[in-house]
Amino acid sequence: MNKINAKSKIITAAKQIMILRGYKATTVDEIIQQAGVAKGSFYHAFKSKEELAIAALIDYKEKGWALVTNSDYLDVEDPADRAIAFVQYLEDKAAEIWQHGCLLGSVAVEISDSSPVILDTIDELLGEYEKAMALVFNQALRARKINKVSGRELGKQLMVVVEGGIISAKSHSDTKILSVSISHFKRYLNYLLET
């Protein structure tokens, strides 16, 4: 039980530090200090900082998606209305969900030329988000008999909007930019679905 506990603490500490300071600036010593575990616990759980980063990214994605899928929009009966409600939920919760940015996006930008293994993991995790969103959007498109765009394309576009909105919000020190960006996507989706 203590090993599982220590591993979980290490992952949590790594996520917290990496999202604020970046992957490269985060040290193993800082992680174990924040986690409150011995250095031996770190190396028992992970072979390297890179292996820990992958575990932290996976945990971030799973917990993020759990947060996104815990909402009343799931109870909306009409698939097109549900898709709009899903995007509205993201718009409403944007500041809370991404208050410190997106760990996947920020690490991807930082290590794009230095760690193919981490980059491949991020690509896979973002792809999982896109697939999950595609399910929501495909149901809406089928309900409205729309075939000029796919749910996967809409999922990819929404990820671009979110990641770009996060970067823009940070660079302008204005958290509202992300919500506004998602709102523009919602407007396009409304037009597409004619709801």
What does this structure look like?
With 195 residues, the protein is mostly helical. The chain folds into 2 domains: 2-46, Homeodomain-like (Arc Repressor Mutant, subunit A); 54-193, Tetracycline Repressor, domain 2 (Orthogonal Bundle). It has 9 helices and no strands. The chain has helices at residues 2-21, 28-35, 39-45, 49-68, 79-97, 103-111, 116-143, 151-172, 176-193. α1 packs across α2, α5 packs antiparallel against α9 (176-193) and α6 crosses α7. The radius of gyration is 18 Å and the shape is elongated.
Give a brief outline of the structure.
It is built from nine helices and no strands. By secondary structure, it is mainly alpha-helical.
Helix-strand blueprint:
Blueprint: H1 2-21, H2 28-35, H3 39-45, H4 49-68, H5 79-97, H6 103-111, H7 116-143, H8 151-172, H9 176-193
